[in-house]
Design goal:
Shape: elongated
Radius of gyration: 21 Å
Distance between the termini: 51 Å
Structural class: mainly beta
Order of helices and strands: HEEEEEEEEEEEEEEEHEEE
Number of helices: 2
């Protein structure tokens, strides 16, 4: 039994080590480095988080750690490598309008990409209950959906043992219809509701592999009651 446990732990250790292995950018043709940038603003915390991730060839390729002097910065400040994430990340308070990422490769090329701050989208003031007795009409406070955007509302937490989400991508949309079937998957009682609005586009400046830049707005979490 003891030997079985030891072997199992050893196997887990090997798998963890393998999953954390990264390629170093110095050993790769710089035009094969695919760039992913994410800017996320959390209205509940008044906090923004930026993430830069590099991969070989495409968005599912092996993750890359940049080799000196290659580096990536946001708004002029270098981003720190997070080994567990396999990415570069930083957080700060507030919403950084007009800022952007700068990536410097081994060959001395610089690629600058500005974030697109998307409109705030919040749960309407005064919403306290959502009924499961039929489809529920839920508008949001903010601009209608624009080209290249996606908006999602999620109900979870509180007394809920599961979560349910509704997603829209159609241009001009300004409200959700929470269908009765999915609402009935929730349990009557306390819950939290939040909206997430996302815009993703190709990079303005990149090498041959290209990449994408994504902006996210996370609304305030609102406490509600699910009623039968």
């Amino acid at each position: 039994m003891k030997r079985t446990i030891t072997l199992s732990l050893a196997l887990i250790g090997v798998l963890f080590f393998t999953s954390c292995k990264r390629e170093e950018s110095i050993s790769i043709d710089q035009n094969r480095i695919y760039s992913e940038y994410i800017y996320s603003y959390n209205a509940s915390l008044n906090k923004s988080t930026v993430t830069a991730r590099f991969r070989v060839d495409h968005n599912n390729g092996k993750k890359i750690e940049l080799s000196y002097p290659s580096r990536v910065s946001f708004n002029g400040s270098a981003l720190a490598w997070r080994n567990v994430l396999g990415a570069y990340e930083a957080s700060q308070f507030g919403n950084s309008v007009g800022s952007g990422f700068e990536y410097y490769d081994i060959d001395g090329n610089v690629f600058s990409n500005s974030i697109q701050i998307i409109p705030s989208s919040e749960i309407p003031f005064g919403l306290t209950n959502i009924s499961q007795s039929g489809n529920f009409f839920l508008p949001w406070t903010g601009e209608p959906l624009q080209m290249g955007e996606e908006i999602k509302v999620t109900i979870s937490g509180g007394d809920q043992t599961t979560s349910r989400s509704w997603t829209l991508t159609n241009i001009g949309a300004s409200h959700f219809i929470l269908d009765e079937n999915r609402l009935r998957d929730l349990v009557p009682g306390a819950a939290q509701i939040r909206i997430e609005r996302t815009r993703s586009t190709s990079l303005e400046q990149s090498n041959l592999a290209g990449g994408r830049i994504t902006s996210k707005y996370l609304s305030r979490k609102i406490n509600i009651q699910i009623t039968a």
